[in-house]
Specification:
117 residues, mainly alpha, Arc Repressor Mutant, subunit A, 2 domains, 12% strand, elongated, DNA-binding transcription factor activity, Transcriptional regulator, ArsR family, HTH_ArsR_DNA-bd_dom, transcription
Length: 117
């Protein structure tokens, strides 16, 4: 799972609000405009980012679009991220440089000074 993309998509307050609103019920863009008191282009930009991150469904109804939350994606993402946090660092190959540096700081006199200051 691409945690970085999801965190970037959720890293803006308006997008968090949109996610919360869509967790209650699917909504048309015009509904989001009214509730958030924002222009259609701004709402559409936020929706595009959330959709590209794989967090939203979009269903066309003629000229209009209804957006809804991909709840299963959120649940899988939260579970997956929790599992990721619980994994021992040593088991993650992409973190090997950090594992090595953590081991090295135990003998670093400047770290000992910093910790005892």
């Amino acid at each position: 799972m691409d945690y970085e993309t999801i965190f970037k998509a959720l890293g803006e307050g308006t997008r968090i609000k949109i996610v919360k609103l869509l967790s209650i019920k699917p909504m048309y863009v015009c509904e989001l405009e009214s509730v958030l008191e924002m222009s259609q282009p701004r709402i559409s930009q936020h929706l595009r980012i959330l959709k590209q991150a794989g967090l939203l469904n979009m269903q066309k109804e003629g000229q209009r679009a209804v957006y809804s939350l991909k709840e299963a994606v959120f649940e899988a993402w939260i579970t997956g991220f929790t599992d990721f946090l619980r994994q021992p660092l040593e088991t993650l190959p992409e973190y090997q440089p950090e594992v090595n540096r953590i081991a090295a700081i135990a003998d670093d006199p400047s770290i000992a000074i910093c910790k005892n200051a």
